[in-house]
Amino acid sequence: KHKISKEWFGPTIACVNIHHPEVLKSVMKSPKAKDMYSLLEPWLGQGLLVSDGKRWARNRRLLTGAFHFDILKPYIQVYNECTDILINKWMGHVTSGEPVLVYKTISQLT
């Protein structure tokens, strides 16, 4: 199976699909990754992932306390159970050859 593919929507809009985590890792670590992150900005806003400089530092400082291990510890079992359900859904798609609608299933997880 291919690790990357491209689809065209009409004559001018191309969609690149990445099918392997190593490919995604190399793309996101490239110097051009900032341009890639900017594509996510309309969807994610100017949060921690897409911001930089002072805005990034401010967002990071605000979020640090919320993600302290002691605060998250009571939720570990719930996270694991929900993640198992998500993985089982994805594996069902993989074994049947159906595409995975990531946005839909991630939305159900969160």
End-to-end C-alpha gap = 30 Å
| Biggest sheet architecture | 2 strands, antiparallel
Strand order, largest beta sheet: 1-2
Unreliable segments (pLDDT under 50, ≥5 consecutive)? none
Please tag this protein with its features.
110 residues; mainly alpha; two-stranded antiparallel ribbon; flat
What does this structure look like?
With 110 residues, the protein is mainly alpha-helical. It has helices at residues 21-28, 33-44, 53-64, 69-72, 76-96, 102-109; strands at residues 4-9, 13-18. Strand 1 and strand 2 form a beta hairpin. It is flat, with a radius of gyration of 17 Å. It starts with a strand and ends with a helix. 1% of the residues are buried. The mean pLDDT is 82.
Question: Summary?
Answer:
With 110 residues, the protein is mainly alpha-helical.
